[in-house]
Structure formats: C-alpha cells, structure tokens
C-alpha cells in the first residue's frame, strides 16, 4: 500500500475563511479522496497558523488575548471545512503543545549543526508578510504582495544561514525536476535562488507571541520558522520515529503562489539543515480572483464559503471550485459563472441522466435495473474516461479529471438519444440500453465521488447498489460490468434542481 501525505497551508487566524482558502482546501480534500479510492494510505493535514506579529496585532485591535482570537478563528476554519465535507485526518494548531515541542526540537538541531547564529540586520520589512524585501523587489516602494508600505527595521537577531544552501538547493532541484509544479513556478524558484540567497532573521524579541528559542527564551521564533514545521509535527517528528519514517517526506504541499518562496526555498533549506529530506513536491496554485483582484482581508472582496454552501450546497460549491479553475493558473470567481456551470454540468448533464434512466427503468423495466452488455459501445468510452480521470487527479489538475469523467455522462446521454428507449416496447433491446446507462452511472458515481461525495452516494443508493462509492477501490471499481442488474432503481427528487 502506497502512502500519500498531502498538506494545505495552515491558515492565519487573523482572517476569516474565504473562498480562496476553500479553493485550496477543497482541492486537497478531493485529491486525497481520489487516493483513498486507489487504496493508498492517506494522511491529509490542514490547520491554523496562530503565532506571529500579524495575529498578535489583530488580537490587540479587537482587545482580546491572541489565544482567544486564535481559538475563535480556528473554530471558524473548522466549521467552514465541516460545511464543505473536508475529510482531513489531522487539524493542527500551531499553539498546541505538540507543535511547540516539535518546533523547539527542530530549531535546536539546526542550532547545534551551526546554521543558526546571532547577527545584526537592517532591511525593509512588510508586517503583513512578516518578511523582508530587497529594494528592487518592491513595487512602487510597496510590498509586492500587499501593495502597502514597508518599514526600515534594524534588528539584532538569530539568523538562519540560508546563504550556505544556495548550491545545495540548485543541485536538489536539478536532480528533482518535479519538486515544484507547475514548471513556470519551478523556474521562478530557480531564478530566485540564482539571484543569491541572503541569511534570514528567524527570531523576534519585540513581542512574545511565539515559540521561545530553546537556547535564548528572550526571543520567539519567526512565524515561518514556527509555521512550516507543522508538516513535521503531524507526521510524528521527535515523538514517534516509526510514524515519522512512514510519512516523511510529505508527498505534496499545496500552496498559493504568494507563499511559494517560503515552501520551495526556505523550507527545503531548513529541512536540509536539520538533516531531513525536502518534500517530494510543492504544488503551487494560482489565486482565485474576484473581478480580477486577489481576495484578501485588506481589499474587502472576500466571499465566505458558508454563504456559497448555504446557497448551492456543499457538493455544488466543491464542484465549482474544482472544475472552474485550472490548478496552477489564476481563476476568476463569479456568481454568474457558478450558476451557469451548475446548470450545465450538474442539473442538465448528471442530474438529467439519472432522472431519465430512473424514469425509463420505472416505466419500461418494472423499476428493476437490467445488467449492462459486456460489448456495450460505452465500455470502451468508460475505459478511456477512467484513464483520463486518473491522469487528471494524478497531475493535481482536478478540472481535467472532472472534464474527463463528464465525458462518460455526455456519452451515456447521447447513447439514450440515439436509441430512444422511451419510444420502444419493453423487452431485450430496451433492457440492453438501460443496463449500459446504469453501468455508466455506477462508474460516474465512483469517479465523481472525490468532488461530489453526497451526490455520488445518492446515485449509488438510487441504483440499488450496496455500500457506497467511498468503499470502492480503483481501478477495479471502474471496470465495465460491475453493475449486477436485478436491483431496484429509485427515481426520487432531482439530484440538482435547475437554478435560474
Ligand atoms: Zn506584504
């Protein structure tokens, strides 16, 4: 059994969950669900990032202790993920004791290895990023990410000797061409490393909301040095060596392009300094834009995932996020596009296929589903669809995977149109066509289940099949001929009622 360890970024608790967070987390969830269907041993980690100046300032602005703000907002992320049926295996909070201990152990190893040293630094600092920028990285004198002014800071701090890792990182990426995807982002990372890597300040003494350095408790760890190791903590770093050997390195870190540098440059170097392997792949996705602008707290264009779920339901919201945006590129979110895609793909294609099949089976087959034909014209389509669907999920491009799966739905609808079983007398010919359509629906239920867990289970049940799609194992469950026939087929209410 293969292991599959995938992480989302941990989200800052100064912010409420918005559709941008949901996009990353739904993608992670669907990819993990696909790997569970393959029979892989999956660890799916998400969580919240609770220390650091940004969270401390947000708490101060609200007049509460940072832990209270963290407790409150971490719960909002959990609630959002519950509403979207996110089946994470672990939800980590960086203020948990298990994490503080792991961070201190990690820092101590690097310190003992001689790659953390005391130094003075002056630079241009963006509080929102909690990072320094060089003057030529600024855009009109402002932070390139936030578009806000930076401050000139002088600090006597502890520094991580990132500069010592420049060649090792280049060698690593040379030897591991898939360590950063897509290729445009890999080139960006290589370009950044080739410009030359400066040492980074990894401690703060101006505030105390963080993990104290074990050898100098007057300093707390820079928030990224405390956030990134969450991926180690959840894998059992320094608490369970057998567990850690099983899960580490992580297979995928899913990240937005704004935090690529931290994950693809700083993090691999930190791991090397601690004698650990870098993650197998950092997969960088684009931003979900609203009217062409990045969603952010400061720009007030956030959409709460809960509002979409209340309006469209969890499955349709998940489907839209997975299908509308090509992973790796920026996507534009609009309500109109969401309604259009819902009607086209869910109501008209999938919903309509199920409803037609159930209606014809009720009237022409006495409500009992006939078995499919081994030589059905849909059999070869199903085989191609499975291959293309597996390829899409395997490349972490859910939009391709779903497009492939939907081909089987379209072809099954076309198969009905071509044969017009509703016009024929009950008998062998109608049974043959309907058995094929039922089998196509069975396969669709399995292949679409990572995106639409509820609807897939509902289709499965209405076809009279025992168990549920999540209990199935691929590739066997996608092989033509799995629908046994002789099962009661239920029509029920529309799976996805059309919207205006
Ligand atoms: Zn910034």
Give an overview of the whole structure.
The protein has helices spanning 19-37, 53-62, 66-83, 97-112, 166-175, 183-194, 223-227, 230-233, 241-247, 260-273, 305-312, 314-324, 335-364, 377-394, 398-419, 428-448, 453-462, and strands at 3-12, 41-49, 90-93, 116-126, 131-133, 151-160, 180-181, 200-201, 203-204, 212-213, 216-221, 252-256, 282-285, 288-290, 293-294, 331-333, 368-369, 487-488. The chain is of the alpha/beta class and 500 residues long. The chain has a domain at 345-488: Orthogonal Bundle (Isoleucyl-tRNA Synthetase, Domain 1). The protein has a six-stranded parallel beta sheet with strand order 3-2-1-12-13-7, with helices on both faces. The structure holds zinc ion. The site of zinc ion has 6 residues, from loops. Residues 126, 128-129, 143, 145-146 line the site of zinc ion (ZN).
Brief overview:
The chain is an alpha/beta fold and 500 residues long. It has a domain at 345-488: Isoleucyl-tRNA Synthetase, Domain 1 (Orthogonal Bundle). The protein contains 17 helices and 18 strands.
């Amino acid at each position: 059994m293969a292991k599959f360890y995938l992480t989302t970024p941990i989200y800052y608790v100064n912010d409420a969950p918005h559709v941008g967070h949901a996009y990353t987390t739904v993608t992670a969830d669907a990819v993990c669900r696909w790997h569970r269907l393959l029979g892989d041993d999956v660890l799916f980690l998400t969580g919240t990032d609770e220390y650091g100046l940004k969270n401390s300032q947000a708490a101060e602005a609200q007049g509460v202790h940072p832990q209270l703000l963290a407790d409150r907002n971490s719960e909002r992320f959990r609630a959002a993920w519950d509403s979207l049926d996110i089946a994470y295996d672990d939800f980590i909070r960086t203020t948990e004791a298990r994490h503080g201990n792991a961070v201190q152990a990690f820092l101590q190893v690097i310190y003992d290895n001689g790659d953390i040293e005391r130094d003075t630094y002056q630079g241009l600092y963006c509080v929102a990023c909690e990072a320094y920028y060089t003057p030529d990285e600024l855009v009109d004198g402002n932070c390139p990410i936030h578009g806000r002014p930076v401050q000139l800071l002088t600090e006597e701090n502890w520094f991580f000797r990132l500069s010592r890792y420049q060649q090792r990182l280049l060698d690593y990426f040379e030897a591991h061409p898939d360590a950063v995807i897509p290729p445009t982002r890999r080139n960006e990372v290589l370009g950044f490393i080739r410009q030359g890597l400066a040492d980074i300040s990894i401690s703060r003494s101006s505030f105390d909301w963080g993990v104290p350095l074990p050898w100098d408790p007057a300093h707390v760890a820079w928030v990224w040095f405390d956030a990134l190791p969450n991926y180690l903590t959840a894998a059992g770093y320094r608490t369970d060596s057998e567990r850690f050997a099983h899960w580490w390195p992580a297979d995928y870190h899913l990240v937005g392009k704004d935090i690529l540098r931290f994950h693809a440059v700083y993090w691999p170097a930190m791991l090397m300094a601690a004698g650990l392997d870098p993650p197998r792949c950092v997969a960088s996705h684009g931003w979900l834009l609203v009217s062409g602008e990045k969603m952010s707290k400061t720009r007030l264009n956030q959409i709460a995932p809960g509002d979409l779920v209340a309006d469209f339901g969890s499955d349709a919201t998940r489907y839209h996020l997975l299908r509308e945006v090509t992973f790796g590129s920026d996507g534009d979110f609009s309500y109109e596009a969401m309604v259009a895609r819902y009607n086209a793909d869910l109501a008209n294609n999938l919903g309509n296929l199920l409803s037609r099949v159930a209606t014809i089976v009720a009237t022409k087959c006495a409500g009992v589903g006939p078995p499919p034909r081994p030589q059905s014209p849909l059999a070869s389509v199903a085989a191609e669809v499975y291959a293309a669907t597996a390829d899409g999920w395997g490349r972490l491009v859910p939009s391709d995977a779903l497009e492939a799966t939907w081909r089987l739905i379209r072809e099954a609808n076309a198969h009905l149109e071509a044969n017009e079983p509703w016009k024929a007398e009950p008998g062998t010919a109608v049974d043959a066509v309907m058995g094929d359509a039922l089998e196509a629906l069975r396969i669709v239920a399995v292949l679409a289940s990572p995106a639409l867990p509820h609807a897939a289970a509902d289709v499965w049940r209405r076809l009279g099949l025992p168990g549920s799609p999540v209990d199935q194992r691929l590739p066997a469950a996608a092989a033509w001929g799995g629908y046994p026939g002789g099962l009661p087929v239920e029509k029920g209410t529309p799976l996805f009622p059309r919207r205006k």
